[in-house]
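note to self: dont lose this again. the chain is below, predicted strucutre after it. 487 aa total, dont forget to put it in the shared folder this time
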Amino acid sequence: MVSYLIKSIVCSGLLLVVYHFILEREKMLRFNRFYLLLAMVFTLLVPLATIDMPSQVVEELVPDNIATVPTVHTAAVNAPLPVSRYDKPVIPDYLPWLAYGIISTVLLLRIGIQILTVLRSKSGRRIIPFETAKLVLMPDDTPTYSFFNFIFISQKAFDFEAVPKEILAHELAHSKQAHSIDILFTEVLLAFCWFNPLFLLYRRAIRLNHEYLADDAVLAGPTGVKEYQLLLLDTLLAHRTTALVSSFNYPVTKKRLAMMTTKINLRNQFIKKALVALLLPVLAFVVAEKTYSQQAATKKEPTSERKAENVPVSGNEAVSEAEMEDFFATIEKNTRYVTNKKGRTDPVTEIIPELENQLYTVYERMNDTQKQQVKAKNISVFRMKIPVKKAPTPEIFENWKKPTVFGVWLNGKRVPNTELNKYKYSDIVEYWHSKLYGAAKKGRIYKYQLELTTNDYFDKTYEERVNDRVIITRAGWIGTKPATIKK
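---
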């Protein structure tokens, strides 16, 4: 979570700097409007994205006498035992979330109250259609402002036709361009993302850009720039309105006055838009979470094992007919049939390791024709390689601690990602992960299922795993052997 907050704030700061120094001075007001809104969403979502990165493949040297010397990574073997980190008081996990929820709720209630205040102010008032909007006549000297398609003006000023047409055109531009949607969206986003103070600057930039757009709409008519600027300066001391509405009395700044006389430079605009288009994917790549795939390392296998597993079988060699019959009979004898939830009968083969090894020896002696007979009966015979230790890099190990990316199984047991804080990267000597798809992702927040083995557990189970590497199944199933099929 801390990593996400840092990345989100840094990303929002960089995009704000780009806007301030590159985009803000250009008169491409609609582009800037959507850039600011997109930047806020971008900084919240991109740190959650994940990119699969290939890990560096390292050649592993496996000694010829691996059966008697099972370790190949001395750093992992000599690593210290896991050290517990529970000697310090730990803040309950729910407390930060509770504080976050309370603050967000208060801010959302504030927004709700402001909306009700604005809507209630038009209750019982005289409403007059005005082009695509509606004029709400207020009984007091209310400054002119708009909220969605409602424009609130003083009834007294309206009756005496004292409302300048430029003010009405300004508020009508706010209404037509749906600036209230931007304002409400920004306020709600701030309620949930109050931890990012830079969003306050985004809100200010968005509101100022709204004024640029409304001013530009007014100046597109017959009103002169100087005349309009004098009208704006006359409203400097007017009363301010609630934060959710668009008002003609929005603070007049040098930037706002300068934008009215800024000339459009299409060449500069094109270059700056192109820079933004290049910046966003680069920034997304830098900020996004990176997961490193565990590519199989190039291994120099032991000579004796290589000879045993890769003995060439000539087309003339074959096992006898009696051995073939005994091969099939043994598998059938050790197969039971179960009915699954869909009512289909599935074979489950349960063979002790010693017998599996004997059957594999027979299978290796078969010629291609006989192996095809085995395959035709939906029997799969497979022998896994000897397990080899391989410690992850520190960077990969730190990646595994992210619960939104990885679900962790340690030594065959599901554990929370925080359990890895008890270990060093060198304590892990075997690992693999698989990506979840479709129904497998239902009810899970993580994207990868991660299997880890510690150094001690590897040594404890090594002999058993070396002797139990043969997998014989029916119906063509090949994979990691479930522990339940062992006798």
